[in-house]
Specification:
heterodimer, A: mainly alpha, 4 helices, flat, B: mainly alpha, about 75% helix, about 0% strand
């Protein structure tokens, strides 16, 4: 890509990444949540890969890192849900942390935790699909 | 608002029909984008910003992916006249569409007017969700608390899809 595209992407990617984190962390207060924020974070990485080519960041060599992240995140979601069976009311998917005051950043019990881990999982999944396609194209042209 | 949503729906149908008939695959992909972005505006008009955010980002990323695929392969759509089997397929499709339209008409007759009335369950969610879950955003409260199993299934579908993509697109492992 040209210098203009590269420079603009450099400036924008960080802001897009931060916005994704904001959407995830405020998922229980404002519109958005794990799914939306995760896709926005994946979008910032995809922007960088599209602008700088697949050699950038050495991510494209193997999709092992993103796959591992994704599977660990979904495992964390399951463990938090299972913890509801040990702590509190002993129900799967029980909200076992104190709910707190409605409208504050730290409130709503375990819902922000679910948001964070689902966000990580979605971001890693979308990035893995994109990387798998990029690697496939590189290997088929060799 | 009903008129605005109807207008956008007409545009979406036009875009979908054009996507089927376009000779150039790139313009077919772009007109598929009309459907997605029209849906975003519909969600915003119907006051569902949660869905609109997800839809606009997913639509953009899938559009980028499809444009990349079209640019790498061919842009020509192969066009052939339908044979005997093709006419049977077309007749089946028209018949199915007619049956669906008939029953849709029957079903909408007994529903509430557009934008009015809500289900008993929805009223329960609206009145009690914020106090029960502590989440100011009702959608997140429903998605991660009342319908946690549903969300777990969605996340698992994504993981399974990624596993499938990696399995199919693996050249080095096949050798």
């Amino acid at each position: 890509m040209t210098l203009i595209v590269k420079k603009t992407t450099q400036l924008l990617a960080g802001i897009v990444f931060l916005y994704g984190i904001y959407v995830i962390l405020h998922g229980h207060l404002t519109p958005g949540g794990g799914f939306a924020g995760g896709v926005i974070i994946a979008g910032s990485f995809i922007l960088l890969i599209l602008a700088f080519g697949s050699e950038f960041m050495n991510l494209t060599r193997e999709e092992t890192g993103t796959t591992l992240t994704e599977n660990l995140a979904i495992l964390a979601v399951l463990l938090i849900a299972l913890a509801g069976m040990i702590v509190g009311a002993r129900i799967f998917f029980d909200n076992w942390l104190p709910a707190g005051k409605v409208g504050e950043l730290v409130s709503a019990g375990v819902i922000p935790l679910y948001n964070i881990f689902v966000g990580i999982e979605v971001a890693a999944s979308i990035l893995t699909i994109f990387l798998a396609l990029v690697i496939f194209k590189e290997e088929i042209t060799k | 608002m009903e008129a605005a949503v109807s207008l956008i729906l007409v545009f979406m149908i036009l875009g979908a029909v054009f996507a089927i008939h376009a000779r150039d695959l790139l313009s077919a992909v772009i007109s598929c984008g009309i459907v997605g972005y029209g849906l975003v505006i519909c969600f915003l008009l119907l006051k569902a910003p949660d869905l609109a955010i997800v839809q606009i980002v997913v639509e953009t990323i899938s559009l980028v992916l499809m444009v990349a695929v079209v640019l790498d392969s061919t842009r020509q759509e192969p066009f052939t006249l339908p044979d005997k089997q093709g006419y049977v397929n077309i007749a089946t499709a028209v018949l199915t569409a007619g049956v669906i339209l008939y029953f849709l008409n029957l079903a909408t007759g007994s529903m509430d007017a557009f934008g009015e009335g809500s289900l008993r369950m929805a009223e329960h969610y609206i009145n009690g969700a914020a106090a029960k879950t502590g989440s100011a955003n009702l959608v997140t409260g429903v998605v991660f608390d009342f319908r946690g199993y549903d969300t777990l299934g969605e996340a698992t579908v994504l993981v399974t899809a990624v596993l499938g993509v990696i399995t199919i697109l693996r050249i080095r492992g096949k050798k």
